[in-house]
């Protein structure tokens, strides 16, 4: 089967750094995505990894290890507006994308 | 900016009714998708389309059908709504290949 695992909830403090982990087991691998979803809103694209290593984009970075089936999203200098769900998603091949259940991040003052 | 719109934000229907959910994108994307999102289950793919009049079943197509007569429009049809189809429905579009997807605001459907 195809499976993506990520923690259900995390809490962090404003200004801190938080790492959200994602492990996946899929029949193939064409890329890994991270999306942000605020409550009641649509998911929005954050990052894409297809090769091993770290991709940095402002306060957000995403890491991929294909051999370990592992990724993480790193959020630096946390702000209250970062309180949201973060969805890890993998494209095994073709047009389909498989989504994890999401990690709900709470940022406290 | 890419814009994906959905016909309704909230919808309440009765069991057995036929339900139409419409999705329109303005970026000339080839691919369009319908997902449902339920707590603890994440997004699950119902159907997708990679071209006009082309459709493929996703992971949970039972009880649903789709229509794509024009490139910009992808409709999801619940032939006979049931209470277990109460959910948030999200439409998405994407360029060719398996790249990032752009989501609409979602339709929260309640079937009573």
What's the SSE blueprint?
The complex is a heterodimer of chains A (109) and B (112).
Chain A (H helix, E strand, L loop, with lengths): L2 E3 L3 E5 L4 E8 L5 E7 L6 E6 L3 E5 L2 E6 L4 E6 L8 E10 L2 E4 L3 E6 L1
Parallel strand pairs in A: 2-11
Antiparallel strand pairs in A: 1-3, 3-8, 4-5, 4-9, 6-7, 7-8, 9-10, 9-11
Chain B lengths: L3 E3 L3 E4 L5 E7 L5 E8 L3 E10 L2 E4 L6 E7 L2 E6 L8 E8 L7 E2 L3 E5 L1
Parallel strand pairs in B: 2-11
Antiparallel strand pairs in B: 1-3, 3-8, 4-5, 4-9, 5-6, 7-8, 9-10, 9-11
User: Quaternary arrangement of the chains shown?
Assistant: heterodimer
> What percentage of the residues of chain B does DSSP assign to strands (E)?
over 45%
Structural class of chain B: mainly beta
Shape of chain B: globular
Number of strands of chain B: 11
Number of helices of chain B: 0
Radius of gyration of chain A, in angstroms, nearest whole number = 13 Å
What profile does the largest beta sheet of chain B have?
A: 7 strands, mixed
Q: Gap between N and C termini of chain B, in Å?
A: 37 Å
H/I helix tally of chain A: 0
Give the CA-CA distance, first to last residue of chain A. Answer: 41 Å
Note poorly predicted spans of chain B: none
Question: From N to C, what is the helix and strand string of chain A?
Answer: EEEEEEEEEEE
Report the largest inter-chain contact: A-B, 24 and 24 residues
Given helix and strand content, the structural type of chain A is mainly beta
Parts with pLDDT < 50 across at least 5 consecutive residues of chain A? none
CA radius of gyration of chain B: 13 Å
Strand content of chain A: over 45%
Helix fraction of chain B by DSSP (H/I, runs of at least 4): under 10%
């Amino acid at each position: 089967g195809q499976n993506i695992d990520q923690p259900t909830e995390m809490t962090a403090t404003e200004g801190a750094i938080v790492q959200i982990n994602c492990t996946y087991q899929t029949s193939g691998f064409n890329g890994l995505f991270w999306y942000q979803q605020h409550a009641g809103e649509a998911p929005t694209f954050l990052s894409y990894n297809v090769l091993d290593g770290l991709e940095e984009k402002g306060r957000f970075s995403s890491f991929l290890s294909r051999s370990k089936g592992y990724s993480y999203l790193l959020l630096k200098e946390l702000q209250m507006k970062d309180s949201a769900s973060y969805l890890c998603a993998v494209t095994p091949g073709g047009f389909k994308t498989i989504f994890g259940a999401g990690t709900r991040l709470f940022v406290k003052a | 900016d890419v814009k994906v719109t959905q016909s309704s934000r909230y919808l309440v229907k009765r069991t057995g009714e036929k339900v139409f959910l419409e999705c329109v994108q303005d970026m000339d994307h080839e691919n369009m998708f319908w997902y449902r999102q339920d707590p603890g289950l994440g997004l699950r793919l119902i159907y997708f389309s990679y071209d006009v009049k082309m459709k493929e079943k996703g992971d949970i197509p039972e009880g649903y059908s789709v229509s794509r007569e024009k490139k910009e429009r992808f409709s999801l049809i619940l032939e006979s709504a049931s209470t277990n189809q109460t959910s948030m429905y999200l439409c998405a579009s994407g360029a060719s290949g398996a790249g990032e997807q752009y989501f609409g605001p979602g339709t929260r459907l309640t079937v009573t």
